[in-house]
Specification:
alpha/beta, TIM Barrel, 10-stranded mixed sheet, two-stranded antiparallel ribbon, 12 helices, 40% helix, globular
Length: 322
């Protein structure tokens, strides 16, 4: 029926009515908190471009994770800052590497906390690229060996889920084969299936000390213009054995989160990356927007688009507000 019988504002008139009819809901269990672990003891070094986020030594990391668990946050994902770097990314797959040591400490103190590990090489190579560089480019197939070794070392240390983020062709299949051969058939793979060569990673590269020393990553990360290719990437990763997939970044690619949700009947994650976080924080600190409302509106939009899990630096703040 036409106006005045149909008045949609009737269902917006009070907070209690709005809560009753709300279509999309957030819960702390849907959030994954990214954390950066570094050598040392008692280290809690704030990341300048990411207020409220820190490079943490293992003892401080355990404290941070205990708080995340108390807030009901769904899990954490770990990124490592090794003591030394080399051209072979040896710290990425060392049994006593920084992430491997952090997982063991977490599992001793917080065995119920879901621990995900980022499987990549950019934090561990002296040149900042995600694999073995040959003639100025990353050698895809030889890099797969590093990734497989890293994933196995993470699983051996106690990681609940491994998450390859390098964007090498065939990496999911290589990791699945290596995990299975080493007795980790039950370890799931969360693939960064559609990871774009985005400008919004800038603050992360400060946090993880992973800025490329030459060139860029556009020969292996996706072109932001290509949506159909993103669906192909997801499909191929699932065929290779991925259990869950991720779209990264989140806000500039809400359309692709939605398309993936419609096409693929698997759990879908989205990464609200460092640049998305830092833009909101900078605008809020200048008084241009309300920080809490911007945080909740953006997280809700990612959830509404179809993501069942959200990797976000707002995890703790949003969990406290919820």
């Amino acid at each position: 029926m036409p106006f005045p019988v149909q008045r949609l504002r009737r269902l917006r008139g009070s907070e209690s009515i709005r809560n009753l009819v709300r279509e999309t809901r957030l819960d702390p269990s849907q959030f994954i908190l990214p954390l950066f672990v570094c050598p040392g003891e008692g280290v809690r070094r704030e990341i300048g471009s990411m207020p409220g986020n820190y490079q943490l030594s293992i003892d401080e990391l355990v404290k941070e994770c205990a708080e995340a668990q108390s807030l009901g946050i769904g899990g954490v994902i770990l990124f490592g800052l090794p003591e030394t770097k080399d051209e072979m990314a040896s710290g990425a797959y060392a049994e006593d590497g920084i992430v491997q040591s952090a997982i063991r400490a977490l599992k001793r103190e917080l065995p119920r906390l879901l621990a995900i590990t980022d499987v990549c090489n950019c934090e561990y190579t002296s040149h900042g690229h995600c694999g073995l560089v040959v003639d100025g480019d990353v050698d895809n197939d030889r890099t797969l060996e590093w990734l497989a070794c890293s994933a196995v070392s993470h699983a051996r240390a106690g990681a609940d889920i491994v998450a390859p983020s390098d964007m090498m062709d065939g990496r999911v299949g290589a990791i699945r084969t290596a995990l299975d051969r080493n007795g980790f058939q039950k370890t799931p793979i969360l693939s960064y299936a559609a990871k774009f060569a985005s400008v919004f990673y800038g603050p992360f590269r400060e946090a993880a000390d992973s800025t490329p020393q030459f060139g860029d990553r556009r020969s292996y990360q996706m072109d932001p213009a290509n949506g159909r290719e993103a669906m192909r990437e997801i499909e191929l990763d699932l065929e290779e054995g991925a259990d869950m997939i991720m779209v990264k970044p989140a806000l500039p690619y809400l359309d692709l989160i939605c398309q993936a949700r419609e096409r693929f009947d698997v759990p879908i994650a989205a990464y609200q990356v460092s640049g998305e976080f830092s833009m909101i924080m900078a605008a809020a600190r200048n008084g241009w927007i309300d920080e809490q409302r911007a945080m909740m509106e953006t997280l809700t939009s990612i959830r509404r688009a179809g993501a069942g899990m959200i990797l976000t630096y707002f995890a703790k703040a949003a969990a406290k507000l919820l």
